[in-house]
Amino acid sequence: MVPVLNAESTINACLQSIGLARRPSDQLIVVDNGSTDGTLDIVKSYPGVELYSAPERTIAELRNLGAQNAAGEVLAFVDSDCVLAEDWRECAETTLRESSVAATGSRYEVPDRAGWIERAWFSQRLSRRQPVTYINSGNLVVRRAAFEDVGGFDERLVTDEDYDLGRRLNAALHAVVEDPAIRATHLGNPKTVGAFYRKLRWHATSSLDTQSLTRPDRPTIMTLLFLVAGTATVVQLGYMLVGQRGVPWLLASLPAVISLTVAERVRRYRNVRHSLQLAALYFVFYCARASVLLRAVGRRLRSRLPFPAER
């Protein structure tokens, strides 16, 4: 199932790769979100494609609509800017032969001519198959029974629908297993720091909606630490500007948060490449998430303020 919106530059490569993995009995479902470029002409040129129109819907609604019109016992979600590896199907079937696995897939690979942001942020992948919290929904294979058991994707979410689905699958004791052999190359990565920041802000828009106040996830906890460390750094710099000593070691708090994050990523992926670039990108990451968090808190506080009395 492929959700699409104005993807004429990538949809052909995506559908070609799916065609190589597809068997005659497989459905190929494309759900269009209201494309105005040449996307639909390309989609319609592929024989056997089931095309549905769902303009101005969330990405979760598009994915659920595709799932509702699928007849198989296994659902495969592929984004329109992803290209599947030649052995993608065989590797996915191998993992799903284990009856305990409810969902699988893997973190995206990057294109051959990837820029430094793509190489640093997206190229580190797991080296072996293992349980994970979630799998990005652009390269996700899930058993229908497990998908329906948790109610599919949450259609209220603007983004982060894959994280939310993984969280609910895990809570329902459906195993989510990432297999790095199930490879898909993501073509739609941000190429500049500005685009990277904007994409992170967009992804963070639904992060609060997927959080439990009693059990926030690690990125949210680290974002709060980043805010505390940033505030401490600003206060210390203020002391120094007026000639007072303050607490000099507070200047190390912000780098410490970034260093801990990079160290955890190195530990997880067993790869020290791009550590300096990752430090810069995680600073941007926390700035983006912090700005969304502060805006959300501000909105909630304003909503609780009493209206002025009418005269």
Report what the structure shows.
It is a single chain. Helices cover 46% and strands 13% of the residues. The model has no long low-confidence stretch (mean pLDDT 91). The chain folds into two domains: 2-189, Spore Coat Polysaccharide Biosynthesis Protein SpsA, Chain A (Alpha-Beta Complex); 210-304, no CATH class. By secondary structure, the chain is an alpha/beta fold. The chain is globular. The strands form three sheets. Strands 4-8-6-9-7 form a five-stranded mixed β-sheet, sandwiched between helices. A three-stranded parallel β-sheet has the order 1-2-3. Strands 5-10 form a two-stranded antiparallel sheet. It is built from eleven helices and ten strands.
Instruction: Choose one word for the global shape.
Output: globular
Instruction: Give the name of the CATH architecture of the largest domain.
Output: Alpha-Beta Complex
Strands, count? 10
From the helix content, strand content and strand pairing, which structural class follows? alpha/beta
Number of domains: 2
Number of helices: 11
SS strand fraction: 5-15%
At the first level of CATH, the class of the largest domain is Alpha Beta
CATH T-level topology of the largest domain: Spore Coat Polysaccharide Biosynthesis Protein SpsA, Chain A
- The CATH homologous superfamily of the largest domain corresponds to Spore Coat Polysaccharide Biosynthesis Protein SpsA, Chain A
Largest sheet: 5 strands, mixed
Helix content: 40-55%
- Give helix and strand order, one letter per element, not per position: EHEHEHEEHEHEEHHEEHHHH
